[in-house]
Automatic annotation (TrEMBL):
SUPFAM superfamilies: Acetyl-CoA synthetase-like. This is long-chain-fatty-acid--CoA ligase. The chain crosses the membrane at residues 17-34, 127-147. It catalyses: a long-chain fatty acid + ATP + CoA = a long-chain fatty acyl-CoA + AMP + diphosphate; tetracosanoate + ATP + CoA = tetracosanoyl-CoA + AMP + diphosphate; a very long-chain fatty acid + ATP + CoA = a very long-chain fatty acyl-CoA + AMP + diphosphate. One of its GO terms (cellular component) is endoplasmic reticulum membrane. One of its GO terms (biological process) is long-chain fatty acid import into cell. PANTHER family: LONG-CHAIN FATTY ACID TRANSPORT PROTEIN (PTHR43107), LONG-CHAIN FATTY ACID TRANSPORT PROTEIN 2 (PTHR43107:SF4). It comes from Sphaeramia orbicularis. It comes from the Eukaryota. Residues 73-381 form the AMP-dependent synthetase/ligase domain.
Length: 634
């Protein structure tokens, strides 16, 4: 029997079937990627998170800290530029030497030994880094005090750290003098970073550091340090009350560092930091630069007029932001050289979608990487796709690795809504816009929540029990988020007793406690209100007056200026006969927040802060219109 081959132009059924199968497969793949355009990015991101977990495990097994990595970089590239500050510059070797001198100065004082904490009350300047690195080299911890704090809040934050030594900047000495009697009574040693000091009870740290040797400190000085040991204390308003201390263990510092590595920075990058070093965000920029072996340009304070000049001066390639800084940059007069810079990447949080678009249109094709997270949190999100307005992506893989959820929330009762079985209900996110809900993240061995130092009550308030099943536990972020039909996550609002203004969390209970110290104010309900065109919410207080007294506007202004940091001072006051409360006797805020500070719809007397007159003045329609039109800068 013989077979004849197909004549020319004939077809082979098997070949045809293979071609058809290949075409169908190609169409299916095409359809899949059409319906899932971010699939490759999602997989790449989750794999990066898995890699981070692997690196973290290796660090735990070898007890390898960020300081160890810094010393490794110093050895590999001693002459590489580490830090620019004003007209100064420091190599990695110089940074190593100066931090060694600081660490040795602490040791030689006889007041600090391994395991102790030293409080740092400084603005953005290189010595902040030398002091912290020096403390790490001798197995100690630094408490990063917010330099806006004063009086009661400052003393409270210092006491939380249990430090016996405080180092302050010369320009902050007046704030230290307010609490100096209490510090001396506690036998606290106070140093000032200055060329000379004449204040009784305060010693000069510069002299001690100048006399110290820069010979490397032996590693056994930190022999007891593990990744569970304290590396820093960072303070957050949390949800209520006075600021709270969050322990940044060496492991948590690594977590922040490795997360920042997802941004894709490298050793050639120069990262510009104008946010306060007491912020976790600034720590992420610093640690990320060290991890990449790159360079940091430090600004003592954000300056909208000098921002781009600094970027050009230091050849900056990476900038860090909060929403307010981006808005300030976009509000400056346009210049011909707006795009004359080398910035390729911007990362941070809190940028509005309209500001985001304006920033890109004006300053060029810069990758913006918005992220979501909290100092005390156990979870973070990163908008790695560049979707304008989003804080991150929701994917099945990511949720599998780090369980989280957005659950229905009752804004009046200020608690998650639960079903008949007592479990929380996930918000609907398959709709095009998504349903806002409370963002929660599961507390596990992989994603722990260590809580607030010395505050078990507030720590427990952040935990949610029996969320989806008996015995599980989640962290309450205090934030309302939503997930749209494409899987993008958007920030909606804060809930409870905290709002955000000027890049800082403001605890309403703390502000209320402070302002009710004024004789004329009987009771206060503090909340945040939106101002058109501005980020966050401005502080407003609805108050009742003490019987027989009038509103002492000048006295109230002087009081809040003395006892509250600038971002926490109420910009508006509303005087009421009585303050509404909920069924559980909590102050009713929802209606007040909705009404805002509009005199068109409010009959109660309204006052607004006037910094030029050092007073609170009646809020007229003309002033209200000027504020909403942006003619008055709040």
């Amino acid at each position: 029997m013989c077979y004849k081959s197909n004549p020319a132009g004939g077809s082979n059924p098997q070949v045809n079937m293979l071609l058809w199968a290949a075409a169908v497969l190609f169409l299916l793949v095409l359809a899949f990627f059409f319906r899932n355009p971010y699939f490759v990015q999602d997989v790449r991101y989750v794999l990066s998170r898995v890699k981070i977990g692997s690196l973290m495990l290796k660090c735990i097994q070898t007890n390898f800290t960020l300081l160890d990595h810094f010393l490794k970089v110093v050895k590999a590239q001693p002459d590489k530029m580490f830090l620019y500050f004003q007209d100064e510059s420091f190599t990695y070797k110089q940074a190593d030497d100066l931090s060694t001198k600081a660490g040795r100065a602490f040791l030689q004082s006889g007041l600090v030994q391994q395991g102790d904490t030293v409080a740092l009350f400084l603005r953005n300047e290189p010595v902040f880094l030398w002091l912290w690195f020096g403390l790490l080299k001798i197995g100690c911890c630094g408490a990063f005090l917010n330099y806006n704090m004063r009086s009661k809040s400052l003393l409270h934050c210092f006491n939380l750290s249990r430090a016996k030594v405080l180092v302050a900047a010369e320009e902050l000495l007046d704030a230290v003098e307010e609490i100096l009697p209490s510090l001396l009574e506690q036998q606290v040693t106070v140093y000032v970073v200055a060329d000379r000091c004449t204040t009784a009870g305060v010693e000069n740290f510069n002299e001690k550091m100048d006399r110290a040797s820069s010979e490397p400190l032996p590693k056994d000085l930190r022999s007891n340090v593990t990744l569970q040991s304290h590396a820093a204390y960072i303070y957050t308003s949390g949800t209520t009350g006075l600021p709270k201390a969050v322990s940044m263990s060496h492991g948590k510092v690594w977590g922040v560092t490795l997360f920042s590595s997802l941004l894709g920075t490298n050793s050639e990058d120069v990262t510009y930091v104008s946010l306060p070093l007491y912020h976790t965000s600034a720590l992420a920029a610093l640690s990320g630069a060290i991890y990449a072996g790159g360079t940091m340009a430090l600004r003592n304070k954000f300056s909208v007029s000098q921002f781009w000049d600094d970027c050009r001066k230091y050849n900056v390639t990476v900038i860090q932001y909060i929403g307010e800084t981006m808005r300030y940059l976009c509000n400056t007069p346009k210049k011909p050289n707006d795009r004359s810079h080398n910035v390729r990447l911007a990362f941070g949080n809190g940028i509005r979608a309209d500001v985001w678009r304006e920033f890109l249109n004006r300053f060029g094709n810069i990758e913006v990487r918005e992220f979501y997270g909290a100092t005390e949190g156990n979870f973070s999100l990163l908008n790695y796709s560049g979707k304008i307005g989003a804080v991150g992506r929701h994917t099945f893989l990511h949720k599998k690795v780090c369980p989280y959820a957005v659950v229905k929330y009752d804004i009046y009762k200020e608690e998650p809504i639960r079903n008949s079985s007592g479990f929380c209900i996930e918000s609907v996110f398959y709709l095009s816009t998504g349903e806002p809900g409370l963002f929660i993240s599961k507390i596990t061995l992989r994603t722990p929540f260590l809580g607030y130092v010395g505050d078990l009550k507030q720590t427990e308030k952040k935990r949610l029990h029996n969320v989806f099943e008996q015995g599980d536990m989640y962290l309450n972020s205090g934030d309302l988020l939503r997930i749209d039909g494409d899987g993008f996550v958007y920030f909606q609002d804060r809930v409870g007793d905290t709002f955000r203004w000027k890049g800082e969390n403001v605890a309403t209970t703390e502000v209320a406690d402070i302002i009710t110290m004024v004789d004329c104010i009987k009771e206060a309900n503090v909340y945040g209100v939106e101002i058109q065109g501005q980020e966050g919410r401005a502080g407003m207080a609805a108050i009742t007056l003490t019987e027989g007294q009038q509103f002492d506007s000048a006295g109230v202004f002087k009081h809040v200026e003395s006892f509250l940091p600038s971002y926490a001072r109420p910009l508006f006051f509303r005087i009421q006969d009585t303050l509404e409360v909920t069924g559980t006797y909590k102050h009713q805020k929802v209606k007040l927040v909705k009404e805002g500070f509009d005199p068109n719809g409010i009959t109660d007397p309204l006052y607004v802060m006037d910094k030029r007159q050092n007073n609170y003045v009646p809020l007229t329609l003309n002033i209200y219109n000027s504020i909403t039109l942006g003619k008055i800068n709040m």
